[in-house]
């Protein structure tokens, strides 16, 4: 009696773009989508070595990936990103185009109302909201019908956190943008959803969390599931949204916080 082998490469034939894909949550997302069979464009701003490492790990796992550089938060950033994508995509996927856009890149500013400067305010909105907006706008001629747009938000979008007063509003705006995309692009079968992580053990939180047992214990206590979030916890949710299993989900915000604030 023969054994039927079921492939787990549910994204075979798909192309994914992941911004901020060289580290943290973006790295985990890129590697997971690569394992699921997608050709992954790992977009990064500064760290070529880290992005190349992600590409190499995807390839060693039997996947396909390439790195593209574009520093977000500047005028013309989305156009530069897509130009870098267009320059390489046909080498990896001859038909070109993209199926999955993951707007993951983001920055945080541990600054309160009294201390936040206009320059810092402009920068955080430019990276966290303006860049995703124009990446999607310019991506509309590239994304295929039935595609997926997944925006990485934060539980800070729904919680008062005055110590990072500008960060939460950028994510609230991103979630509103996502709902509008769902309505706008629904006729093409394109879904748009937000994923909202809580406290995750990544480089973004390293300054106050890594190596600090007391801070880690406190962060873990905030989650109903009683532990610190990991990048892979978020990546697995993104992989579900990217798959056909999530074809009837759009315009939503998926909590990926382990139950923070319940």
UniProtKB/TrEMBL annotation:
InterPro entries on file: KR_dom (IPR057326), NAD(P)-bd_dom_sf (IPR036291), SDR_fam (IPR002347)
Source species, domain of life: Bacteria
Keywords: Oxidoreductase
One Pfam family per UniProt: adh_short_C2
Signal peptide start and end residues: none
GO terms assigned for molecular function: oxidoreductase activity
Ranges for domain Ketoreductase: 14-198
Name the record gives this protein: SDR family oxidoreductase
């Amino acid at each position: 009696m023969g054994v039927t082998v079921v492939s787990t490469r549910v994204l075979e034939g798909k192309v994914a773009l992941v911004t901020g894909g060289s580290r943290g949550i973006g790295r985990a997302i890129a590697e997971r989508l690569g394992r699921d069979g997608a050709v992954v464009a790992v977009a990064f701003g500064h760290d070529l070595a880290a992005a190349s490492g992600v590409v190499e790990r995807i390839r060693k796992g039997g996947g396909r990936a390439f790195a593209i550089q574009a520093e977000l938060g500047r005028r013309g950033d989305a156009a530069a990103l897509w130009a870098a994508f267009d320059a390489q995509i046909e080498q990896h996927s001859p038909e070109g185009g993209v199926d999955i856009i993951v707007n993951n890149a983001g920055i945080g500013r541990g600054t309160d109302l009294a201390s936040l400067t206009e320059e810092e305010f402009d920068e955080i909105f430019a990276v966290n909201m303006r860049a995703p907006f124009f990446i999607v706008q310019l991506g509309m001629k590239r994304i295929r019908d039935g595609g997926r747009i997944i925006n990485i938000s934060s539980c800070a979008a729904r919680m008062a956190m005055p110590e990072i007063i500008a960060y939460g509003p950028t994510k609230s705006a991103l979630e509103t943008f996502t709902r509008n995309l769902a309505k706008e692009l629904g006729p093409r079968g394109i879904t748009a959803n937000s994923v909202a992580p809580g406290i995750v053990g990544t480089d973004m939180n390293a300054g106050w969390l890594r190596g600090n047992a007391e801070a880690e214990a406190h962060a873990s206590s905030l989650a109903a599931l009683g532990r610190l979030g990991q990048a892979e916890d978020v990546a697995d949710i993104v992989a579900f949204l990217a798959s056909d299993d999530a074809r009837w989900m759009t315009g939503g915000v998926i909590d990926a916080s382990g139950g923070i604030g319940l």
